[in-house]
Design goal:
The complex is a heterodimer of chains A (115) and B (115).
Chain A (H helix, E strand, L loop, with lengths): L2 E3 L4 E5 L4 E3 L2 E3 L5 E8 L6 E7 L7 E2 L2 E6 L4 E6 L8 E9 L7 E2 L3 E6 L1
Parallel strand pairs in A: 2-12
Antiparallel strand pairs in A: 1-4, 3-9, 5-6, 5-10, 7-8, 8-9, 10-11, 10-12
Chain B lengths: L4 E3 L2 E4 L5 E6 L6 E8 L3 E9 L2 E4 L8 E7 L2 E6 L8 E8 L9 E2 L3 E5 L1
Parallel strand pairs in B: 2-11
Antiparallel strand pairs in B: 1-3, 3-8, 4-5, 4-9, 5-6, 7-8, 9-10, 9-11
The chains are: A mainly beta (115), B mainly beta (115).
């Protein structure tokens, strides 16, 4: 079974600075998808960014980018120019590219932005 | 598009009572997921449907939990009888699984409190 681990329960960063959230996963599959979801206090789950395992190029979405290291099974999220609105829980998630469509989530990292 | 709709948003009930959570997926989506979020266990899949058929219910805690999807636009998750340990946020999500790079869209969640 696949597992996802986020080793940082909490992180904080100064506004306008850069922060990196860590995520590692375990799988025997070669093709899969990885996601970062944001959950603000409203508890709505919002997709931040996704990465296809077959793509070597790291995904980017505006101020959000990932560092995908397939061999190391690592998938970190970098937030540049942090804004107060980025404060939330961030969840890393895995989904198989074939078979099961379910998302497997990490435990989450609570990100605080200091003004 | 209205997004995934869940009702009620909040539910407070007493131990032993029956609880029914409802979900309307995004129109055109063929897969529907029920997730549960707790402090202890994080986000975990309870069950998911593909084309209204249950595919994986291995996450359903026990016989007290049941889920149905009578048609493509409606699903229910029922707990009978409810227990305090069922207190959690329950999310419904949907996606078009025919698209390889599909994204799961989450509803706002139902916060359930069992006294």
């Amino acid at each position: 079974a696949q597992t996802v681990t986020q080793s940082q329960p909490e992180m904080s960063v100064q506004e306008a600075e850069t922060v990196t959230l860590s995520c590692t996963y375990d799988t025997s599959e070669s093709d899969y998808y990885l996601f970062w979801y944001k959950q603000p206090p409203s508890r709505q789950m919002i997709l931040v960014i996704r990465q296809e395992a077959y793509k070597q190029q790291n995904a980017t979405e505006n101020r959000f980018s990932v560092n995908f290291q397939k061999a190391a099974k690592s998938f970190s999220l970098k937030i540049s120019d942090s804004q107060l609105g980025d404060a939330a829980m961030y969840f890393c998630a895995y989904r198989s590219a074939s078979g099961a469509q379910k998302l497997v989530f990490g435990q989450g990292t609570r990100l605080t932005i200091n003004p | 598009d209205a997004g995934v709709i869940q009702s009620p948003r909040h539910e407070v009930t007493e131990m032993g009572q029956e609880v029914t959570l409802r979900c309307k997926p995004i129109s055109g989506h063929n897969s529907l997921f029920w997730y549960r979020q707790t402090m202890m266990r994080g986000l975990e899949l309870l069950i998911y449907f593909n084309n209204n058929v249950p595919i994986d219910d291995s996450g359903m805690p026990e016989d007290r939990f049941s889920a149905k999807m009578p048609n493509a636009s409606f699903s229910t998750l029922k707990i009978q009888p409810s227990e305090p340990r069922d207190s959690a946020v329950y999310f419904c999500a949907s996606t078009d699984s025919t698209r390889p790079n599909n994204e799961q869209f989450f509803g706002p969640g139902t916060r359930l409190t069992v006294l």
